[in-house]
Amino acid sequence: MKMKEVCDKTGLTERAVRFYVAKGLVSPELIVRNDREDVQTLRDISDLRKLSFSIEEILSMQKSPERIAEVLSVRRAALRKEQKDRETILASLSRMDGSGMQSIHQLAEQFRSVSASLPNP
Description:
The protein is an all-alpha fold.
């Protein structure tokens, strides 16, 4: 199957397909074989990425399906933490009036106590 066909069938860009091949999520022979399973795997990977699963998590679940429940549990906990952090940020932003701000330093100073408890992105 040609790369264009793979992209058409999966809705992914050529760059994304090549990235997933490079990461070992799908076989590099994907482009020459006419394998519906590979196309479905790419769709599955795309769906899981949209749900914020990392490449490492997907690879782990592919290699060890018995770890799926564990990965789901860890992902749920991470999303709950992210949600809590975002709610904290949103509450702080809601109280902020930036009309008098003249620099990002002033803005950062206003949020220093909030940002201190958050991880770097």
